[in-house]
Amino acid sequence: MTWYVVDGMDGCGKSTCAEMLKEKLESEGHKVRIFSHPDTSCLFGKLEYGYLLKDGKLCKILATIFFILDAVDSLFKMRLSSRKYDDFIFVRYLMSVAYLPDGSYKKAYKVIKKLFPMPDDFILIDVDAETSMKRIESRGEELETFENMEDLIRTREKMLSLSEGWLVVDNTLPLEEVKRIIHDHAAEVISRS
User: Count of CB atoms within 10 A of residue 47's CB?
Assistant: First the structure.
C-alpha cells in the first residue's frame, strides 16, 4: 500500500491533480481510493465546511478542530479498507496548518508530524494567489473564510516554507505538463516500492 497526500491552498487544483495521480496509478493496475477534505459525507467534514463559511477567529479555530477530526475519520476509514485498495490519496492533510496564525503553524506542523501517521509521498500543488482567487471565484460558490487575497498570499508563503521534502508542482503550467510531472512522479514512487 502507498499513501499519497496531495495538498495545497484553496483553488490550486488539488482535486484535479489527485485525479491525475489516480489515473496513473490505475493504469498500472492499482486499486485507488481518494479521501477529500472536508469530507461532507461525515459529520466532522460537514461541521468543518460550515465553519469555513463563517468569519471570526472562533470559527477558524473550530474549522481547524473539525478538520483534524475529519482527517482522523479518513485515517480510520483508510485502515478499514486497506485490504481492498493498493493506494490511497488524501486531498488536503498536513498543509492545512498553513491556515493557522503566523506564530503557530510551524509548531503545529512539527506536532502533527510526530503525533499523526505520515504518508509515503507528499505532493504540494502550487499556484500564485491571483490564480487561486480567480479559480475560487469562477466556481460561483460562497467564499470560505480564508478565500481572500491577503490570506491566500500568506497561506502560500507558509506552505512553501514547509515544503522541504515535498514534490512541488507548479499548477500554472499547461495541463498536459502538470499531468506529465505527476505521472512521472507516480512512476518513480511505484518503482521504489
Answer: 19
Three-state SS at 145 = coil
Predicted confidence (pLDDT) at residue 57 exceeds the cutoff of 90: no
Q: What is the tens place of the pLDDT at every residue in 91-106?
A: 999 998 898 888 889 9
Q: Three cell numbers at 34?
A: 481518494
Nearest alpha-carbon partner for 89 in 78, 100, 79, 99 = 78
- 10 Å CB burial of residue 159 (0-12, 13-18, 19+) is buried
Q: Which residue has the cell 473550530?
A: 62
Q: Which residue has the cell 475560487?
A: 136
Cell numbers at 185, concatenated: 512522479
Report the alpha-carbon distance of residue 64 to residue 97 in Å, rounded.
Answer: 8
Q: How many CA atoms lie within 13 A of 44 on its CB side?
A: 13
**What does DSSP say about strands 32-36 and 2-7: parallel, antiparallel, or unpaired?**
unpaired
User: 35 with 152: CB under 8 angstroms?
Assistant: no
